Amino acid sequence: MPPSLRILLPLLLAAHASSALAFELEEATIESIHHAFANGALTSRGLVELYLRSIASLDPALHAVIELDADGALAAADRADAARLSRAGSGALPPLHGIPVLIKDNIAAAGDGGGLLNATAGSLALVGSRSARDAGVVERLRLAGAVVLGTASLSEWCNFRAPGIPAGWSPRGGQGLNPYVPSATTCSSSSGSAIAAAANMVAVTIGTETDGSIMCPSSFNSVVGIKPTVGLTSRAGVIIISPRMDTVGPICRTVSDAVHVLEAIVGHDPSDAEATRMASHYIPEGGYKQFLNIDGLRSKRLGILRKDFFRFPSGSVQEKVFEEHFNTMRQMGAILVDNLEIPSMNVINDAVQSGERALMLAEFKLSLNSYLSELAISPVRSLSEIIDFNNKHPIEERMAEFGQSYLLQSEATNGIGPIEVRAIAKLNKLCKRGLEKIMQVNQLDAIIAPGASAHSLLAIGGYPAITVPAGYASNGVPFAICFGGLKGSEPKLIEIAYSFEQATKVRRPPVLQHSVI
């Protein structure tokens, strides 16, 4: 158990959240929380205390949380409660008012009246670092009224330390576990965010994705993940791998909650100026919540990507469930265009052949060194210093065999040169001849693929996706359905995902063993 949780236990045992006793925490949504706030059944402080208690009970087994700012969160919750009382009947409060949030441990939070949170990407090298300001998305979360509770665990360096390291593992957080089937993967790299949301440690979490890191953990942990169009959300104050591909998005238990959070965090940020300025014209007037349409599947043209994506054994639960889902979509008025194939998918799925790896290695060094240079305090100021730190502080013995080859290869790069320029050109060609062409030729509103199987297809072009729980395999491991589209297609994807979710209502909470606290 992390020291912050051990210190917290006496506080939680002594706390009495009597106003929260009538509130049902399991599977609570933003809407149900706001309703409880409004009718006096719950306060924001009471909710924070309940979530802190849930984390203290569950996290020693699941390893979803790296660090908590209990003092800061409770102080922010008290301010939210005071604001609610003072403005009773006088107007609307911010959309996430008083709602606790866990942010992935590569997102900077400068503190909110309590202790500052580290943003370490799971690495011991960055323990003690301090950001001069909140990341752009954290600033927007606070403006929306959210209470930043702490940081969620992840695969170290967003799964970019070395190949083969287990998904969901980092030196700071240990090995995250799937709350449904502990022996199953949590997937990379926003694993803690997905675990925490799935296990009801919090209603709202934030993840990041380069290539699969929101889609995959959301799929394997039976939660909803939104991977926004690159640039729709700011990456300022975030440790990223690739400006071309990295995006910040919500991981929640319902499409509605994820959309509420998405609406709160999108927008132009001068600190991530080029990407957010270009993407800001995609934001619809009136926001995203208007697309939570229960009839959203009607008349949508959806392309089913069979080859290279649907690889389930014949007669498996997954095969049967997906066919049932396709029939449901047809009954809801969707037009399914079946058996579509993406050309050169074998190349797209091979990061070396596509040029993705070469570009990521160069971009990671540039992005990381830039991030480190802007920190107010940091024990390391460059990727080379991180490599030196790792050499002096070997990771645990069972992980030592994996080393830090991606970090070493990245350090050997020298900016965006001829190799990277050729990689960008090849990726652009794969996008135009791949997803963009199949969408245009078939006049599709979205493509359908199982789980995170389309992660590279969507990553290389900065395209958006929403994953929604679709079922549970015979061994109990969750699986999802993915709806993806072209840049800026979030309104259509939200309509489709919400309509599918409401028609199927697949998600069920995991059965968990609580520690006695």
Automatic annotation (TrEMBL):
Record keywords: Signal
Domain Amidase: 47-453
InterPro entries per the UniProt record, alphabetical: Amidase_dom, AS_sf
Signal peptide: 1-22
Gene3D superfamilies xref list: Amidase signature (AS) domain (3.90.1300.10)
Record bears the keyword Signal: yes
Statement: the UniProt record of this protein carries the keyword Membrane: no
Pfam families referenced in this protein's UniProt entry, alphabetically: Amidase
PANTHER family (UniProt xref): AMIDASE, AMIDASE DOMAIN-CONTAINING PROTEIN
Name the record gives this protein: Amidase domain-containing protein
Organism in which the protein naturally occurs: Brachypodium distachyon (Purple false brome)
Gene: LOC100835116
